[in-house]
Design a protein that fits this description.
There is one protein chain. The strands form 4 sheets. Strands 13, 14, 15, 16, 17, 18, 19, 20, 21 and 22 form a 10-stranded antiparallel β-sheet that branches. The termini are far apart. 20% of the residues lie in helices and 32% in strands.
């Protein structure tokens, strides 16, 4: 039997339903009330009726609700006595200071759930290295039960963990964005970076362009008012939404009347580099400077007066004044032979390069991740950050360049150093086929506002 209290409970639960269901329930309740109403006997005594409620009628009312809303699965989740909770996704974005245990607790999952995911496979290690901006989506089918976990490192890249027999299978998420070429021009009135800002070119793209031309242009001293540049780079879109910047495809920089052109080319072996129209690599053996956006505070001088000791003491390097924390980059490939404190040098990195060359980077505030004795480094890789450790009066980088153990004036020898390799003669025809359209575009600035045709200039056959 069903009590009047249950009937009232049903009405309260369903009070927000559509009028048809409400009318049906009210009608049913009227029948119930009349059936249960106390009756008066012939002697005037009130008697309680004890008749069973028609349970089929209750079921019919519930059927009306199911039909009107499509299915009970789409019904009000508050009706948990009748319908199970729907499966749902709970989404979180990792913030600075977050940890995985706290995130699991936040969505109602236990330490056991966390342990099960972390020990499911090698790819789960990504969860031990969460960074702000990562997006986590938990598919919880019922309270405390994790069916799937999606981890997006970026809109295009991530992992999906799916429960399978008390463990989790994993699949990679790889979403290919639409690549849109963007062509822009800039004119230098003050600095390259201000010019890039005026042209609405991302700062990171301008920095990359500086790296491309870093072997032929000293961006600290060479740029002059009146210089100009053109750059073609990629933007990435996913379902019409901007999701990031891509590679530089080509760039042109006119410095004091001399034009430099660089195009991105991927050779038949899959190696990518930037080359001038003759197929010569823009990547020289050494970058002209180990920092960006700096000024030289002290040149190589064997008779310099020391600023602290106040005595004549040779200055066997070049000092680059820069804000504390400015990244310091390796000027060429090599192996780290020293990464520790060293007297007045403070925190020092020493790199041994091919061909009896050696470079030193002193007064660092901190070392970059992975930089230690024996590390292999690539040209442009961050070694550490500008500081004032050791004998230093202010934040700057002390940079030394040695050949066969002898200190050299870096500013006078950099242009005499060997260039990197050029395109092999056997590949020159392919190089020209891939870059001709791009080079023609740079020759005609009048058409610089138009994106280049979709011809492949960056990919291998």
């Amino acid at each position: 039997m069903v009590s009047i209290e249950l009937a009232k409970h049903l009405i309260n639960k369903y009070h927000h339903r559509h009028h048809l269901l409400l009318a049906s329930v009210l009608g049913l309740m009227l029948i119930l009330i009349l059936s249960f109403a106390p009756k008066e006997s012939a002697h005037g005594a009130r008697m309680q009726a004890a008749q069973p409620i028609n349970i089929d009628l209750l079921n019919e009312v519930l059927a009306i609700e199911a039909n009107s809303s499509g299915s009970l699965e789409n019904s009000d989740p508050l009706l948990d006595e009748i319908d199970p909770l729907e499966s749902q996704w709970k989404q979180l974005e990792v913030q600075s200071g977050d940890n995985l245990s706290a995130l699991f607790t936040q969505v109602g999952l236990s330490a056991q759930d966390l342990y099960r995911v972390l020990n499911s496979n090698d790819e789960a290690k990504v969860l031990n290295r969460l960074y702000p901006g990562y997006k986590l989506s938990f598919h919880i089918t019922e309270p405390g039960k994790l069916a799937q976990l999606q981890v997006l490192k970026s809109p295009m890249d991530g992992f999906l963990f799916t429960l399978n027999n008390n463990s989790f299978d994993v699949e990679f998420i790889r979403r290919e964005p639409e690549i849109v070429p963007v062509f822009k021009n800039g004119n230098i009135d003050d600095s390259l970076f201000m010019a890039g800002q005026r042209a609405e070119i991302p700062a990171v793209t301008i920095m990359e362009m500086a790296d491309v031309f870093g072997g032929v242009i000293d961006f600290m001293l060479d740029p002059r008012a009146g210089d100009d540049f053109s750059i073609l780079y990629e933007e990435k879109y996913l379902e019409g939404e901007f999701v990031g910047h891509g590679d530089i495809i080509g760039a042109q920089f006119t410095n004091q009347g001399k034009k430099h052109v660089a195009v991105r080319y991927q050779d038949q072996n899959g190696d990518v580099g930037f080359y001038n129209p003759d197929g010569e690599s823009m990547r020289k053996a050494f970058l002209r400077n180990p920092l960006d956006v700096v000024r030289i505070s002290s040149n190589f001088n064997l008779n310099r007066k020391h600023p602290i000791l106040n005595t004549i003491r040779a200055h066997r390097g070049t000092d680059y004044a820069a804000p504390r924390g400015t990244p310091v980059r390796a000027t060429s490939d090599g192996e780290v032979t020293w990464a520790a404190r060293n007297g007045s040098f403070g925190k020092l990195v020493v790199i041994k390069h091919q061909g009896q060359f050696e470079t030193k980077y002193a007064h660092l505030n901190e070392y970059a991740a992975g930089i230690k004795k024996g590390s292999k480094v690539r040209q442009g890789q961050v070694l550490g950050y500008v500081g004032t450790t050791g004998g230093s009066t202010g934040p700057h980088l002390h940079y030394e360049f040695l050949v066969n153990g002898v200190h050299q004036d870096w500013r006078t020898v950099v242009d005499k150093l060997p260039k990197a390799v050029a395109i092999e003669s056997s590949e020159m025809q392919r190089f020209r086929e891939h870059t001709t359209a791009l080079l023609e575009q740079f020759e005609n600035h009048a058409t610089a506002e138009r994106p280049l045709p979709a011809a492949s200039t960056t990919t291998a056959d």
